Amino acid sequence: GWGTDSSRDKNTAAQGETQAAIASLTGSTDLEKELADILSKVKGAGTVSVAVYYSESAEQIYAMETQSSESRSSSADNSSVDSQTTQTLAMSNEQPVAVKEYAARVSGVVVVSEGAGDSLVKERLYLAVKSLLGLSAGQVAIIEGEGME
């Protein structure tokens, strides 16, 4: 960590880097360390610990190729069309083609902070978590901690 006094003016410069770091960290436990580190620099926060919960793990969405075939059958009473659709993975150089890759989605964050009893500090922590992770109000819990090391 940084010294207590000198860190105040470095906060703004570090913010851009921090967001880049968070983007590359999502999906790893380092995210909790990183968040606790950032949030503990919030004025009045004191000691902070963070727990991050994920709704799903990282996944890849692959391109699918769809083929339709129709067979017509007609009998005296009715004529019907059976369409059959088969889906197969789109391949390129014998590798499936990934369309999108989703990082693990953060479903909730719990922040325990010594200073969270102060509503202003709580609000700052809340805004920081919301903006860093793009979460909605119901996904962020800020709790006052006591006698934390």
Brief summary:
Helix content is 30%, strand content 39%. The chain has 149 residues and is α+β, with helices and mostly antiparallel strands.
Note down, in words, how this protein is organized.
It is a single chain. By secondary structure, this protein is an alpha+beta fold. It is 30% helix and 39% strand. The chain contains three helices and nine strands. The protein has helices spanning 7-25, 30-39, 119-133, and strands at residues 48-56, 59-62, 64-74, 79-89, 91-92, 95-96, 98-102, 105-113, 140-144. The strands form four sheets. Strands 1-8-9 form a three-stranded mixed β-sheet, with helices on one face. The protein is elongated and about 85 Å long. The two termini are 15 Å apart. The relative contact order is 0.19.
